[in-house]
Amino acid sequence: MSEAKDNNGRGSWLTFRPEIKVLDCTIRDGGLMNDHRFTDELVRKVYRTCVAAGVDYMELGYKNSKDQFPKADFGPWKHCDEEDMRRIVGDNDTDLKLSAIADAEKSDYKTDILPKDQSVLDLIRVATYIHQVPVALDMIQDAHEKGYETTVNIMAVSTVHENDLQEALELLAASPVDTIYLVDSFGSFYTEEVKELTKRYLKACKATGKQVGIHTHNNQQLAYANTIEAVVNGANQLDATMAGLGRGAGNCPLELLIGFLKNPKYRLRPILECVENDIEPLRGSMHWGFDLTYMLTGLLNQHPRAAMSHLGKDEKDRDSIVKFYDEVMDV
Amino acid sequence: MSEAKDNNGRGSWLTFRPEIKVLDCTIRDGGLMNDHRFTDELVRKVYRTCVAAGVDYMELGYKNSKDQFPKADFGPWKHCDEEDMRRIVGDNDTDLKLSAIADAEKSDYKTDILPKDQSVLDLIRVATYIHQVPVALDMIQDAHEKGYETTVNIMAVSTVHENDLQEALELLAASPVDTIYLVDSFGSFYTEEVKELTKRYLKACKATGKQVGIHTHNNQQLAYANTIEAVVNGANQLDATMAGLGRGAGNCPLELLIGFLKNPKYRLRPILECVENDIEPLRGSMHWGFDLTYMLTGLLNQHPRAAMSHLGKDEKDRDSIVKFYDEVMDV
């Protein structure tokens, strides 16, 4: 399997693309399963692990609106206030860059995102549905002018018409954004589709020197496979989470991805330690990961909310998977 | 994602290749985790589910030597005696074909495999390491002459030199075997390698009209991804197990594969029912499925026995994953 190609265009085992960057979003995507209520100790463990593992970016959480999401109802990683971040990372005197993500139409970005010289954040990521692209463009412009690196994550792209996607890619390619992410929100893409879409995103990005990123979900046990498929086809910014911790079926596991990548700056051992000692023990209270219900919503290219609601019930009140199947198939 | 291609060579969503056959090996591969001691009730449930789901073949177990593997030490599916099989399937008056697998140098095949007209079995599969190919060829000839369909599964091919593999493929292509299986015994193949190998197996099979099969393990969470990669590249005989039940990290989950395949003869609902009611409850006593230890042996292209031994210990006696990592990395 090849990150890089040799002179004959063949995959090479012992080379790597130095452009590849890994972004750990354990706390950010995992926060969707516990209203962002992680202990400071846990967040610090993940932070220190990312530093030790040579990961390029760590995403701490959201920069979303305190009006829409009151502080009393959520843990600190829904808003990523400067004081909360600094309690964990100090001035972040490390090579690890820090990021937060802001949802289009859910973020008071103009006020809540500080100028970069007043923040420990390095990267602002903008999450947008296709119809919100005009808002996203303003958010990108705002963060860019404040001095941040920026990415844009076009969500639920498996439900978007080809022409609309093409137009969105063209608009975003003309913006100052550094990276455009291919996002498999519903975990519904097969590997072949990831290949085609990665090529399409790359084509849109090429003229303006932008990178393509990949963010996957594991509804059909393809999160890792789809991530490395994107790598092989040229994606250079890769999202992953420890033990796959993330919404619903979870994300591409960081430990698998680091095992795959050849750049010697990455180290697997600290990640294994954190997964075993700090992340896996959360499974008792946070139920993420592959499940037949997620497989079914993924197969149907649906938001996982029906599956999450099914799994949120006490086991004794939960319908059988066959009943769930009959319900979701009755579309 | 495409099983078939349209006239322009593009993947098509609404067509399928009727040549594709699915083989359920839940009881056979799963038997490696419990010395083949399943209750008759469980085997009957899996059998009835395969019939209801339109699966093409069900593998009941091994045809291995009673001298080497005494009956007292194993459940009935180590030997697949005719009376044991008939207790479950009667005369198997269904469209489901039945198979058993025999290991080269571990099977008294000349005596233990009956002529086909005296057996409920339809298919004899021969499992061989590369150095046993001469034995495998004799086993294939024997089963073929007795009236069976035959396949050959070349195991541990990730450790085989290219030239040796080529020679083995040429020898097997000249035999009466119907299908040659690409087998990822150690769960170490990446998707790109499966693509290349599938093409290579197909090339060897083409002249003699044989099919290529695929049998994967989930050490790196790629069992399903690698199976559909083989399908897209032309493999037509596909092994899978319910809930991925199988040795170590387990196999390609049948429910995912059936969700992917478009042939209307396949039905997902009965499989979901069996997985939920009959297979998942076995997890308490049989510990199969992805684990970081299997990821490490897969990454290192090693037999999973070190991981199985690690996981076989009581939790309190088990070393940390970091200690396991240090040990397996010290090669």
Quote the beta fraction of chain A: 5-15%
Q: For the terminal residues of chain A, how far apart are their CA atoms? A: 40 Å
Average pLDDT score of chain A: 94
SSE pattern of chain A, N- to C-terminal: EHHEHEHEHEHEHEHEHHHHH
Please provide the count of β strands of chain A: 8
Assign the CATH architecture of the largest domain in chain A: Alpha-Beta Barrel
Mind telling me the CATH class of the largest domain in chain A?
A: Alpha Beta
Question: Total helix count of chain A?
Answer: 13
Main beta-sheet annotation of chain A: 8 strands, parallel, barrel
Please mark out the parts of chain A with pLDDT under 50 across 5 or more consecutive residues, or reply none: none
| CATH homologous superfamily grouping of the largest domain in chain A | Aldolase class I
Residue share in helix of chain A? 25-40%
| Multimerization status | homodimer
Going across the biggest sheet of chain A, name each strand in turn. Answer: 1-2-3-4-5-6-7-8
- Quickly give the structural class of chain A: alpha/beta
Q: How many structural domains can be distinguished in the coordinates of chain A?
A: 2
Largest interface, chains and sizes: A-B, 36 and 35 residues
Radius of gyration of chain A: 19 Å
CATH topology of the largest domain in chain A: TIM Barrel
> Which outline of chain A best applies?
globular
